[in-house]
Amino acid sequence: MARRGIGVVVLVAVGDVGPASAATVPTPPLGADSTQQSIGSGFDFPLGVAVDADGNVYVADTGNTRVVKVPVSGPQVVLGSGWSQPQNVAVDVAGNVYVADMVFPTVVTKVTPRPVARATGPGQVLVSWEAPLQDGGSPVTSYTVTAADASNPAAGGQTCVTAALTCTLSGMTGGHDYTFTVVATNGSGDSAASAPSATVVPLAPEVPGAPLGIATSQTTIGSGFDQPRGVAVDELGNVYVAAVASGPDGARISWAAPLTDGGSAVTGYRVTAFDSTDASHGGQTCSSTTTTTTTTTPSTTRPASSIPTSGAPRYTAAPTPVSATPTYTG
């Protein structure tokens, strides 16, 4: 296959060629002129083209070793997989696509359209499909999707009826292998079932969260705090409290040990003070081997009258934000 290049599929319309009409009405007259337009994109040496009853175009894109469907509307779709050099393509009234692949293994492959299914939540699967190529002369009024459980057939049989081209089925067993088929219905009855979808494994349902009450309750957490300023909760429900108490000589700082020690025991902590009002008054540090220490802060940080407390001493400094950094051995 020495020849390569950007290939195009071109539609040449002579006059105004419209869709098929009722048998008693003639087709539009043919014009003396013609128009042409490119169909799809990204082809390399396309060798085969087919069109179905709805006007969808199928291309054997030989240079890109793929078969492409170009719908009347919507993005183009790659069909099947494992092609070597697809040379030609045909489509039947049921939408099955036939591909002649020239290079080993030299085969003609039938590509059968099937619904697309994907798990969307606990016990739920979203199924989507396309309308049939022929409606039998009567509009399709609904579709019925049916689930089959390969892990336990008795657990299958869930259905969904809709007029749309997507449907979400619920109530399936998490961890089981499911496939889905779709049946179209018109005024004359039901179609044959579609080919089964690829196997989908729904997620396992989860227990509900604890019910919320109408009233509220309060519980004291921990004890011995003095001016707690910060609180946080980890994923295990542990509560962490930043308690900072100030006095004439500075601020008493408490913190929690880190959740992990990095594989080496924590040997000490270094505490640094930051003054958010006047940065020049911050920078005090101290070290500790426990999770409590006192760091000295200057008395000029706040006026003494800024923290009046009836019946208690007036402190010369307000608590100053601090950070504690652990140091490790090893």
Q: What would your notes on this structure say?
A:
There is one protein chain. The protein is an all-beta fold and 330 residues long. The chain has three domains: 105 residues, Thrombin, subunit H, CATH 2.40.10.500; 75 residues, Immunoglobulins (Immunoglobulin-like, Sandwich), CATH 2.60.40.10; 101 residues, Immunoglobulin-like. The N terminus is likely disordered. Helices cover 0% and strands 41% of the residues. It is built from no helices and 23 strands.
Which key phrases capture this entry?
single chain, 330 residues, mainly beta, Thrombin, subunit H, Immunoglobulin-like, 4-stranded antiparallel beta sheet, 41% strand, disordered N terminus
**How much strand content do the residues show?**
35-45%
Helix share bin:
under 10%
Under the CATH scheme, the architecture of the largest domain is: Beta Barrel
According to CATH, what is the class of the largest domain?
Mainly Beta
Domains, number: 3
Shape: elongated
The secondary structure category is mainly beta
Return Rg in Å.
Answer: 37 Å
- Give the mean pLDDT: 75
Low-confidence stretches: 1-5, 12-22, 297-323
What strand order characterises the main sheet? 3-4-5-6
Number of helices: 0
Oligomer: single chain
CATH topology grouping of the largest domain = Thrombin, subunit H
Total strands: the figure is: 23
Span between termini: 64 Å
Largest β sheet strand count, sense and barrel closure: 4 strands, antiparallel
Name the helix and strand elements from N-terminus to C-terminus, one letter apiece. EEEEEEEEEEEEEEEEEEEEEEE
